[in-house]
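User: What would this chain look like folded?
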Amino acid sequence: MSLKISCFILLLSTSLQAQQVYTLQECLKNGLENNFEVRIVRNEQQISKNNASLGNAGLLPTLDLAAGYNGSLNDRNEKYSDGTSAEINDLFNQGANVGLNLGWTIFDGFSMQTNYKQLKAFAQLGDIATRLTIENMLADLSAEYFNFVHQNLRLSKLQYAVELSKERLRIAEAHYVIGSKSRLDFQQAKVDFNADSSQLIKQYETVHTSAVKLNRLMAEDDVSQAFVAADTMIRLNPILNQDDLWTKTLSVNAQLLMAEKNQTISALDLKAVQSRNYPYLKLNAGYGYTLALSNQATTRRQNTLGFNYGLTLGFPIYDGNNRVREQKNAKIALKNQQLKTQQLEMSLKADLATLWTAYTNNINLTNLEKENLIVAHDAYENAMERYKLGDLSGIELREAQNSLLEAEERLLQAQYNTKICEISLLQISGQITDYLN
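Assistant: Here's the prediction, encoded as structure tokens.
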């Protein structure tokens, strides 16, 4: 078993030596450039910007060039008042026209201006949505990066555990050979060694799974390629302040900014409906040429070339009370959006308070587990010395070893949990991009 594990570790280390070593900043920059969700939302952002134009809002006139042709072939029977009648066969008429037509809504109760403001608001909403997607990606990638570091640290601890079990197995075998220990003690040492080796093999799979997730978030072509992190330990940020985090959350949190922008759009929706209370004025004009031909009429050919224009003034008087209904609904929708903004602010405040408590608690746990690890390490060293002298049973040594490994695991977990809370706090306060620097 130990030979297989050694060969596996050798193959893995040989593979990793050929791989690029990634810092967190390099991972995040790759994600910004290649992540599919970021690329998609940036394209959607560009669509929103393209839509925020005067023409799309209806503020600019429209100009069309149109041409047409029509014809008719009829038989006509006419009866006159004096009793006579006439029949005309193969009456053929045809006509053609070509011209420029201009249409322009001059005033519509400020609806076009409101529409233009809405389009610009949607463009700004697209900017915020892009930022939110980027922040989510940065947070996910940062969390997975430190998970990879965490899992590699666990891998090192499990390798150390295998080495400890291997040493215990060697001593147990030596005692068994000389007859100072029973075969049961030797067999139990071998069972424990195999159990630790099994955990080590599973941990290699966990590390590989984390590497695959990192490659996927960075949109690497080969998601199974080996990944090497530049960080070999989890460093914590000791300068976070709860009041500063909340102040920045209120000012730059992307979700809160989106809610406020949606509130602005709802207010513009109300103005758009209210604009229908005003009259409207439309201008239309045209310049064109028409040709009419007939094989029976007195005028066989008629040409017309000229300019036409007109103004239309209208005022909506009654539409089945739909305007009143829509205005009431728009006011309710605006109120709901205001309530959603308040609800989101309260939710963010609760999330920040929860995360801050978890952050501080895990910092305290980290400090406590550092002390526990020192004690557990000393206890194991003493137990090993007694085991070598034959004054301690294998089961008691295993308990000391487990206490040491559990202390190491608790310390790693507390450090990792602290880092995850730190990432979440920076994300909720809109500072997750700090990791790029």
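Residues 2-34+108-279+315-436 form a domain with the Outer membrane efflux proteins (OEP) fold (CATH 1.20.1600.10). If you want, I can go into more detail on any region.
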